[in-house]
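User: I want to check something. If I give you two sequences, will you return the structure for each one separately, not as a complex?

Assistant: Yes, each is folded on its own. Here is the first sequence with its structure:
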Amino acid sequence: MTITGDDTEKIKRLNGSLFHEFEMKDLGNLKYFLGIKMLRSEGGIFLRQKKYVLDILVETGLIDCKPVDTSILVNHGLQISDEAELADQGKYQCLVGKLIYLSHTRLDIAYAVGTVSQFMHRPQKDHYVAALRIVRYLKGTAEHGIMFKKNEHRGIYGFTDADWASNLVDRKSIARYFTFVEGNLVTWRSKKQKVVAISSVEV
C-alpha cells in the first residue's frame, strides 16, 4: 500500500489504524513501485525506469546495440502496405505495450510510441524496425526520467499543438499536449485525431 499526503500527523494516525487492524509494517519512503524508481534529494523527487529499460534491451537482444540519437526518423512515412512483409504480431504487441508503459516517465518517446502503436492490429516489418529504433534510442538515454520539485511557479498551465493531415493513410492529424502544475510536468500525450480536419484552423 502506498500512502501519500502533506499532513504527517494524519498519515501517522492512518498507519496506526492500519497496523492495529492488519499485520503489516512501514517500509519507509517509497523507493520502487511497478518498475518506477523514486530518487529523493534536496532538489526534489526524480522518477525513472532505468531497470525497466534494461529489461527491454535484454528481451529484444539489443543490450549491446549502438544507440541512436532520435526515437523515430523524421518523415518516417510509416503506413500499412498490402505487399509489405508482416511482423510477429504477438511479439510486436508485447514490445509496444512495454514502450507505452515506459512513456509514463518518458515524454521524449511519446510521439514515437504513439506512432508505432497505430499498427498493433497488423504490424509489418517496417513497423517492428521502427519500434526497435525506440529501444536503441533508450539504450543511450536509460538514465532519463522526470523531476518533481518545489519552485516559484504557481498555477496550472497547458500547451497544445497539432500537425495537419500528417498520416499518409487516412490523412488524420496528430495532436499533442502537456500540462504543468506548480511548474512540474504532470500530463502529456501524442494522439491521432478521430476525424479528418478540412483546414489547419480546424485542426
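And separately, the second sequence with its own structure:
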Amino acid sequence: MIGNSSIDLDEGTDGNISCSVKNHVSHAQNTIRLKPCPGLDRFCRFNQSDPCYTALGHKLNLMMVLDASEYDLKIIKRIINTADGPVCRVKNGRMRDCDLYNNRPGVTVINETLIINRVIRADSGNYRLKLDSSDGTETSRDLQVIVEAPIGSVEVSIICSSSGVMRVSCSSEGDPLLYSWTLNGDPLMDGNSSIDLDEGTDGDISCSVKNHVSHAQNTIRLKPCAGPTTAAVTSSLTSSVTSSVTSAVTSSTQTSENDTSFSSAGINVTMNVTPSPEAFRWMCEC
C-alpha cells in the first residue's frame, strides 16, 4: 500500500519490510526485519505427520479431535517407543486423573484442544492419543513434540588477523541455531557461526539466526582492516636513521677534534669528543 505512514499486517507476518519516503527533491528508505508478535499461539494436531515444534515459555495448543463427546480420550507420554508413561484422561471436555500434567495449573482442555499456557522443557517427547468410542473400538494417533528455546539477540563481531584475514563471528542464544550470511544483500556461505573475508572487504554484512520457532538478524557496517604495515615502516625508518647518523658522524670525526654539531636527514646530532679517543658521548635529537 502506498501513501500512508502506517500499515496493518497479520500478527504472524514474517520477513523484511521497507518504508520509502520521498518528495520532489530527495528520498530515503529504511528496512527492518519483522518478527512474529510475542505470545503468538502455536497450534499442532495429533493427526499431523510432522513434528510439533514449540517455543520454550510460549503457549501451545494441541488439537485432539473435532468432537470429543463421542470418545473417551487418553493422552499418554511415551517414555520409550514401546512403553507408556504418565496418562491424562479427558472425558466430556474435562481432564480427569491427569498424572501427565499434575500440579500444572496452566494446562487445561477447551473445545477439544489441550492448552499448555507456558511450555517447559519436560513437554518435549512422543505422545499418543487413544480414542475409545462408545461402540468399543479404539484408535490412536501419535505426535512428537519438540521444545526449542527462541532466538535471543544476535551479536556480530569482527577480528582482523595479521595474516590479512577479516573474521566475522555471530552469536546468539537459543537452540538449535542455523546461521546464514549476506554481504550487501548477496548470500554468502550458510551454516557456520563465523566467516572469513578478505581484509579489504567493505559494505553491510548481515547474520541471520533461526530455528524452528523463531529467528533474528543483525547487520553491521564492515570497514577494511588496517594493513599490517606498521612494523615494516618502523623497521625502514630505524634503518634510515641509523645509516644517516653513522654517515654524518663519520664525516664529522674526520674534520674536528672539538665539539661539533651537524644536521643530516632532519636529525640534529651534537658530538662532544673528550681528549681520550676511547671515551666520547653522543647527544641526538630527532
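Because they were folded independently, the notes below concern the second chain alone. The first strand starts at residue 15 and ends at 22. The two ends are 69 Å apart (CA to CA).
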